[in-house]
Design goal:
The complex is a heterodimer of chains A (about 425) and B (about 300). Chain A is an alpha/beta fold and about 425 residues long. In chain A, about 45% of the residues lie in helices and about 15% in strands. Chain A has helices spanning about 1-25, 45-60, 75-85, 95-105, 115, 125-130, 150-155, 165-175, 195-205, 210-215, 225-235, 250-260, 270-275, 320-330, 335, 355-365, 375, 385-390, 400-415, and strands at about 30-35, 60-70, 90-95, 130, 135, 135-150, 180-185, 260-270, 285-290, 300-315, 345, 370. In chain A, the strands form 2 sheets. In chain A, strands 1, 2, 3, 6, 7, 8, 9, 10, 11 and 12 form a 10-stranded mixed β-sheet that branches. In chain A, helix 2 (about 45-60) links the parallel strand 1 (about 30-35) and strand 2 (about 60-70). Chain B is an all-alpha fold. Chain B has 2 domains: about 5-50, no CATH class; about 75-305, MetI-like (MetI-like fold). In chain B, about 75% of the residues lie in helices and about 5% in strands. Classes of the chains: A alpha/beta (about 425), B mainly alpha (about 300). The interface of A and B includes residues 242 and 246 of A.
């Protein structure tokens, strides 16, 4: 009887220990991560899938709560959360630049300079995640703007990669005469218009044209911007963007490239994975740097770029620094970055997985000047109005000078007048 | 004998004062949830929006009181002016086109009732139950260049004139393309609402009209229209207020472009607040929408009150 009681006592104690064990075990650190893409089977989600799933498997002491918010859900929710300043994620996906800088200025981000400075990556990627001398995150992938072109069509009509804008115009004329739309753009969505405008401005006046305007040393309606806009409008009027450019969305533009109805597209290298995917297109797509302008100040090695996938850390992660650093270091590891099928990686030692990404990577590595994508470089209050002003280029009768002067007055309201 | 209206039977020995107290207590008791709900989710946000509209606020950092500066900047801004004109245009054409069209279809379905009537009613109503995103997607599928239905048909039949029309990209046409899709999406509800009202008209009125020799359309114009004028005015108010708040279809179909051709106050509010981080200006747009909606609704109902339609 006594033995039985003893056994019962031991059994009960064992049960209590088993039940209480998780309570008294070392607490798991929980990281809340807000991202754009779902970690699902979609080809261009391969990196995020590998990052989240593998990190969880390899770090059982860290609980990762990854929330995919989509586009523009990620940007909208982040803005509202940052303004509210109560419920913030520990880490969030960002495109760096002034938007991230605005959060940093408002004290929402955590200075991670000490921990992240030594992580190997391209200087452009590190620069993009730096604001006023402090590093707030990492950018495992970097996107540059360049010209995607249909190699088959170029070969068929004996066209070669242009080195000057005059040659590019000749190619556009030839393509038009063959019934092929020279450029796909997606002007309906506004932002795709910017890539070509940035290059036309740079190739004519150099990187200083935009830098000076952004630093309020010159106006946004100065002659260099107007000249670039007029050249752009001239191309629109010549029909280089088809006869209904303002009805064309960015996804329409991709379809035009995928079906060989358009021969070139000036856009970001994030498209490499899609254009290299044989299930998406049977065309062979190549990539080259935007050509120089005869007599212009900009060089072919001036490249427009911004982070493609990047993560920044918020103030709520102040007590979880060790876990955050482990996550970000893993995000920048060769092992996980190799899962990405098409983006340009900023981590040394990660090889491009297709010839198209390799071509874009070459343009990136040969770049001597990387200018941050304008709409990520200006304060958010003036970025959409810039894109609105851009869309005027596609209206044949639009007064471009007036559009840019209107934009300048808004910039003055937000960023102040030009310093004399 | 006194009557207890709460218990629904003659009052026993309660004093009149006590009864009144009970009535007041129950009135408050039943009204309180609704009042609280309105106060928390409506009146308080309205008050906050008014306050915010007087601030320069980016959401990050301190907000600065600037008085009516946001309103001054808005009313001198070309984009806002276009938005204002567009919503008034939209309201006007909604009342002029959508309501008569809805009445025409609703009356035809009732007057020429046959086996297909219920099916047709469902077909017309279908667009109203579809989410705006789907309606916009269908609209884009119809108007898209290169891959759209109209583009494909015009190429198939070699209708070059139709192929050349840029439905969503030409500033002169984009407004009407969006309005066309919206008409298809919205009239389903109006048709069902008007049909329900027409069907409530007593049969003997129609028979009397028939005996007097009125044909179907004379009956529609001289008898049905006056009888259902009140529900039609309700629809007109919905049209006008809905136009002032308009956001989803123009935003999804054209993003407010090309230029400012389809920009509405709702789109400007969204862009100022969630894209440009100008929460003060966004609140000012919200206040303008609120005041315009209030003015139109009050004007509409006081006009009806004058005509004796409502108490």
């Amino acid at each position: 009887m006594k033995k039985r009681r003893w056994l019962l006592f031991v059994g009960v104690m064992a049960l209590v220990v088993v039940l209480l064990a998780p309570v008294y075990a070392a607490p798991r650190v929980k990281l809340t991560v807000w991202g754009r893409d779902l970690p699902d089977e979609q080809a261009d989600h391969a990196y995020i899938r590998a990052l989240i799933n593998n990190f969880k498997a390899k770090n059982p002491d860290i609980e990762v709560d990854y929330i995919a918010l989509g586009d523009p859900g990620l940007m909208d929710k982040t803005k509202v959360a940052m303004a509210n300043n109560k419920v913030l994620p520990d880490i969030f996906q960002t495109w760096g630049g002034s938007t991230m800088g605005g959060y940093a200025d408002a004290g929402r981000l955590l200075d991670m300079t000490k921990e992240l400075k030594s992580i190997p990556c391209s200087s452009a990627a590190q620069q993009a995640m730096t604001w006023k001398g402090k590093i707030y995150g990492v950018a495992p992938f970097f996107a540059i703007a360049g010209v995607f072109y249909n190699e088959g069509i170029f070969k068929k009509y004996n066209l070669s990669i242009p080195t000057t804008i005059d040659q590019l115009e000749e190619i556009a004329e030839t393509l038009k005469s063959k019934g092929i739309q020279p450029f796909a753009c997606g002007a309906k969505d506004k932002w795709p218009v910017l890539a070509l405008f940035m290059y036309l401005t740079d190739r004519s006046g150099g990187v200083q044209v935009f830098n000076n305007a952004a630093d309020r040393k010159s106006r946004f309606d100065n002659p260099e911007f107007i000249k670039a806009a007029q050249k752009y409008q001239e191309w629109v009027k010549k029909g280089y963007f088809g006869d209904k450019p303002l009805s064309e969305t960015y996804s329409d533009a991709q379809q035009l490239m995928a079906t060989g109805k358009a021969a070139m597209q000036i856009s970001g290298s994030w498209l490499c994975a899609q254009y290299a995917n044989k299930e998406f297109t049977d065309q062979t797509i190549g990539f080259f740097a935007f050509p120089e302008m005869k007599g212009g100040k900009g060089k072919i090695t001036d490249v427009m770029g911004m982070p493609d996938i990047a993560f920044a850390v918020t103030r709520t992660a102040a007590n979880k620094r060790a876990a955050v650093v482990r996550f970000l270091k893993y995000a920048m590891s060769v092992e996980v970055c190799q899962a990405e099928p098409g983006r340009i990686c900023s981590v040394p030692g990660v090889k491009a997985r297709n010839p198209l990404t390799e071509k874009a990577s070459n343009v990136f590595t040969q770049a001597k000047e990387i200018q941050f994508w304008w709409d990520q470089n200006l304060p958010p209050m003036v970025t959409t109005p810039l894109l609105d002003a851009m869309q005027n280029i596609f209206l044949p009768n639009a007064d471009l000078k007036k559009a840019f002067t209107t934009y300048e007055s808004l910039v003055e309201e937000v960023m102040g007048p030009v310093k004399k | 004998m006194d009557y207890d209206i709460l218990l629904g039977k003659p009052a026993k020995d309660k004093s009149r004062k006590k009864q009144m107290r009970e009535i007041i207590f129950f009135k408050i008791f039943f009204l309180l949830p609704a009042v609280l709900f309105l106060a928390v989710f409506m009146y308080y946000p309205i008050k906050e929006t008014f306050q915010l509209s007087m601030m320069r606020a980016s959401g990050l950092g301190e907000s600065v009181f600037i008085g009516f500066e946001n309103y001054v900047r808005l009313f001198t801004n070309e984009e806002f002016q276009s938005g204002l004109i567009n919503v008034f245009r939209w309201a006007f054409w909604s009342v002029v086109i959508q309501i008569p069209l809805s009445f025409f279809i609703a009356f035809s379905l009732v007057a020429y009732r046959n086996k297909m009537t219920n099916g047709l009613r469902a077909v017309y109503y279908l667009a109203s139950v579809l989410p705006s995103a789907i309606v916009a997607m269908l609209g884009r599928f119809m108007f898209a260049p290169n891959f759209g239905i109209i583009a494909s048909i015009s190429r198939k039949f070699n209708w070059i004139w139709l192929d050349k029309v840029d439905f969503l990209g030409d500033p002169r046409i984009a407004f009407w393309s969006v309005f066309f899709v919206a008409t298809w999406a919205y009239i389903g509800f109006y048709i069902v609402y008007i049909m329900a009202n027409i069907e409530q008209i007593p049969v003997d009125i129609r028979e009397a009209a028939e005996l007097d020799g009125a044909n179907r359309w004379q009956y529609a114009i001289h008898i049905v229209l006056p009888i259902i004028s009140y529900p039609l005015r309700i629809i007109a108010v919905l049209c006008v207020v809905g136009s002032l708040k308009l956001f989803d279809l123009p935003y999804l179909l054209t993003g407010g472009g090309p230029g400012h051709a389809t920009k509405t106050l709702g789109i400007i509010l969204y862009q100022q607040g969630f894209v440009n981080w100008q929460y003060g200006k966004a609140a000012a747009v919200g206040v303008v929408i609120f005041l315009l909606s209030l003015i139109f609704t009050v004007a509409q109902f006081s006009w009806q009150r004058k005509e004796g339609d409502i108490g």
